[in-house]
Amino acid sequence: MRKLYRQMRGARAFTLVELMIVVTIVAILALIAIPLYSANTTAAIMSEGVAGAGTIRTAMRVYLSQQGSFTGATIAGLQIGSSDLEGKYFAQADYALSGVSASTYLITAGPPSKTTRTTLHYSIDQNGSEQGSYYTNQ
Question: What are the residue ranges spanned by the domains of the chain?
């Protein structure tokens, strides 16, 4: 018992300076990691919106080959599975198909309804002309 007591008395603890250094290093790492995480999340949201618009665009091309024109096309009427436009950030209702005529259409994605972190507005037309903008809510 005395031996254990002597070992406990001789044991050293961390000093305040050592603890402050560790806290400072952790804070610096957090300052680097948080913006990188935020940027990657924004990129993921944008990628999902663009991918969903691409799914609709592919379905529109199939519709054109089957019907001969874009007239009468709707998102609900296209051969898209019920879960193809459902993602982590976007729902099917976040996509719109407008300006549909015999040879034109405009697909719009955004803003994502399943997150408030980023608002994305992305559009693509029958010629592949893309326009997009986003802002991040911090």
Answer: 14-136
